[in-house]
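Bug #77: duplicate submission created two jobs. Keeping one. Sequence:
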Amino acid sequence: MSWLARLFGTAPPPPAVQPARLVVGLGNPGPDYDGTRHNVGFEVLDRVAAEAGLAFGPEAAQAMLAEGTWRGTPVALAKPLTFMNRSGRAVAGLLERYRLGADDVLIVYDDLALEIGGLRVRGKGSAGGHNGVRSVIEALGSTEFPRLRVGVGNSFPPGQQVDFVLSPFDDDERAAADEAVAEAAQAVFTFVRDGLTAAMNAHNRR
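Kept job's structure:
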């Protein structure tokens, strides 16, 4: 919702479609965070939207939305505007907006435990130290929701984790990161079209 809408209480637009799947990329809003490791979830969703011919435009449930149909399947893509540590608020609001259950949402986010280029699709799991995922778990009251982890490496000195995830990929890492984003986008399409198990079988890699 824009600042004018927040100020005057304008209702968000109704869904353009009733999606069968919801895909949420985690990240931090604003240009200061563009291209950082922590925003790889946003990068994946931008790639998905471009390939699906969708555009991010309306704001609702504290998220930027791209709603439409891809190959006959109605889908919604969302980038929360809540900042990473409060991502759960947006995810819970989005599930309410679209009347979907936790099994119907795929959460896409960065993972320090995987090398750059690594992908993992899972149906449940802990937060693994990721504050955005922790917020989603707290908001939903469950660890059982599909997620796509995208490796961003972990080459940082002790105590420098925050600076590392809020930094851009190095020049010699960018090609591998771009490849991972492209493959992650395909994993999203597989999830949307064929479901979680198919995405796990086709796209999990180190």
